[in-house]
């Protein structure tokens, strides 16, 4: 099937889904488009990969493909949000360029001017002969400009322009020669450290390793164990994985749905035995940092900007009289512009602090959910209930760096109970206990499918074609590879027998006697 044909099939399927309000079976699409059932099924799975949707299974085992009525592409964002992000990005880049020009250049200029003013004041008056960096100063050697080591500190010889800076924790993983230049830490002070932007393939690697470690079979419940996602998001993600990696839904007699990925279990190196990735509660999120810098780096940035602010604010009373400067240009260039810049330089991280606090509250909530989920999964597999008190003690002992409230723990338990159809029960003393039998059923069904399918035993057969072979080698490989199959045409060579010539005509002679022989 050509790429054009595949695209046409997907377009036909998408039009059919629009007319069906986003919900359809393979039969619905076949009836609406005239596609072959296999082509319709392939197109539906491809659309699950590219568009937001879910896969549902009926009690009869039929598959129902459900898509958002707006048919939103995965990873897409509204036009207004995209324009806002682009505008903010352009503004940030412009301000970064202004930072480089202002902070460093003004720091150098004010160092020179302050030294010149101090020298002039010690001589008992303004430097009328030369003004800024006047002739007498230059005749006596002038004022030293920053040397090589200053610029080395600002830049860094092995640093590639455009390379991201993810903060001090990431910096510790670098080689000593890969010195992060100071200007990147200045940017981080204002805008925060750069944030990694992993691709979907990079994000999928861990999940694919989980699928292989679970012998090619996974349920949405197990995906939640790995990601910590809420149930609806986990089911949507599982649908995407099925479309992306040739997965197949399978349904147990009890109605439990699992997904098999046989293609992922075939390896050129024999049996697949990957190390299982960590579950969600072992992959908690660090708090977002305001700057990502070390205390020393922040102190250096604050010191430079504070020096510029102080020098600019005091220039009319200290620098101008000593060096004989004045006029509108001096006031604008040496007072107004640097004062406004320095004030903004301090104001931006102050405003960002509010958004960082909000994000950290969200991260704490997600971390709490993951930790409580770990306890819920363990108790469910042990067929034991979970109480609010036990969950609170469990979470508080493992999240020592954040305040864990009992009410928040109960809210998480109620959220998980809604996702897994668990009902709380009250004991005689009024204590609430939650049981999650659906989690154990899901794990048991997945394990049963693994044993039945035995996908871990799949392995590639003998090589029958190799692009590196010439014509002779290809023919010899084909002959050699067919040896095992050709043996099926041979009867057993362990026994021998005899055959007389008359046996060749005996059957025809019998037919003639019965009058059945052909004329």
Give the tags.
3-stranded antiparallel β-sheet, 9 strands, Arc Repressor Mutant, subunit A, mainly alpha, 519 residues
Brief description of this entry?
Helix content is 56%, strand content 6%.
Description:
The protein is mainly alpha-helical. Among the domains are: 76 residues, Arc Repressor Mutant, subunit A (Orthogonal Bundle), CATH 1.10.10.10; 176 residues, no CATH class; 57 residues, no CATH class. The protein is built from 20 helices and nine strands. A three-stranded antiparallel β-sheet has the order 1-3-2. Strands 4-6-5 form a three-stranded antiparallel β-sheet. α12 runs antiparallel to α14 and α14 crosses α16. It is elongated, with a radius of gyration of 37 Å.
Topology:
Layout: H1 3-19, E1 23-24, H2 26-33, H3 37-50, E2 53-57, E3 63-67, H4 79-122, H5 135-139, H6 148-154, H7 168-171, H8 182-191, H9 200-213, E4 217-218, H10 220-227, H11 231-244, E5 248-251, E6 257-260, H12 295-314, H13 319-323, H14 328-381, E7 386-387, H15 388-398, H16 406-419, E8 424-426, E9 432-434, H17 437-453, H18 471-481, H19 483-486, H20 503-513
Antiparallel strand pairs: 1-3, 2-3, 4-6, 5-6, 7-9, 8-9
């Amino acid at each position: 099937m050509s790429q054009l044909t595949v695209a046409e099939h997907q377009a036909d399927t998408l039009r059919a889904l629009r007319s069906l309000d986003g919900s359809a079976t393979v039969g619905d699409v076949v009836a609406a488009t005239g596609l072959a059932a296999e082509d319709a099924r392939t197109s539906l799975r491809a659309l699950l990969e590219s568009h937001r949707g879910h896969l549902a299974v009926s009690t009869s085992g039929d598959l129902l493909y459900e898509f958002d009525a707006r048919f939103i592409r995965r990873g897409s964002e509204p036009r207004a949000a995209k324009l806002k992000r682009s505008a903010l990005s352009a503004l940030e880049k412009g301000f970064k360029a202004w930072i480089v020009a202002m902070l460093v250049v003004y720091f150098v200029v004010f160092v020179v001017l302050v030294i010149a003013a101090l020298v002039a004041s010690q001589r008992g008056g303004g430097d009328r002969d030369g003004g800024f960096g006047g002739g007498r100063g230059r005749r006596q050697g002038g004022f030293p400009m920053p040397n090589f080591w200053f610029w080395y500190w600002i830049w860094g010889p092995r640093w590639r322009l455009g390379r991201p800076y993810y903060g001090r924790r990431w910096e510790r993983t670098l080689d000593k020669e890969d010195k992060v230049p100071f200007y990147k830490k200045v940017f981080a002070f204002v805008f925060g450290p750069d944030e990694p932007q992993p691709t979907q393939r990079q994000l999928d690697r861990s999940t694919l390793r989980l699928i292989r470690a679970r012998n090619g079979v996974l349920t949405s419940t197990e995906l939640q164990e790995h990601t910590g996602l809420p149930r609806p998001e986990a089911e949507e993600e599982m649908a995407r994985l099925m479309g992306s990696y040739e997965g197949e839904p399978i349904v147990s007699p009890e109605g439990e749905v699992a997904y098999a990925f046989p293609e992922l279990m075939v390896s050129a190196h024999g049996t697949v035995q990957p190390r299982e990735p960590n579950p969600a509660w072992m992959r908690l999120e660090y708090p977002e940092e305001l700057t990502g810098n070390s205390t020393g780096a922040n102190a250096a940035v604050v010191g430079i900007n504070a020096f510029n602010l102080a020098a600019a604010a005091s220039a009319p009373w200290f620098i101008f009289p000593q060096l004989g400067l004045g006029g509108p240009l001096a006031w604008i260039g040496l007072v107004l512009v640097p004062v406004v810049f320095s004030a903004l330089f301090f104001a931006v991280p102050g405003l960002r602090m509010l958004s960082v606090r909000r994000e950290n509250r969200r991260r704490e909530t997600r971390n709490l959910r993951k930790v409580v989920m770990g306890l819920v999964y363990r108790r469910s597999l042990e067929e034991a209930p979970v109480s609010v008190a036990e969950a609170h003690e469990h979470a508080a002992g493992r999240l020592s760096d954040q305040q864990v409230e009992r009410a928040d723990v109960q809210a998480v338990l109620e959220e998980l109970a809604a996702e897994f159809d668990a009902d709380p029960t009250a004991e005689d003393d009024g204590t609430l206990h939650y049981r999650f039998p659906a989690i154990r059923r899901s794990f048991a069904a997945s394990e049963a499918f693994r044993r039945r399918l035995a996908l871990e035993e799949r392995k590639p057969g003998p090589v029958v074609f190799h692009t590196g072979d010439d014509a002779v080698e290809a023919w010899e490989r084909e002959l050699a590879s067919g040896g095992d199959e050709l043996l099926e045409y041979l009867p057993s060579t362990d026994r021998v027998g005899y055959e007389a010539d008359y046996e060749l005509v005996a059957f025809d002679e019998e037919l003639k006697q019965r009058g059945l022989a052909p004329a």
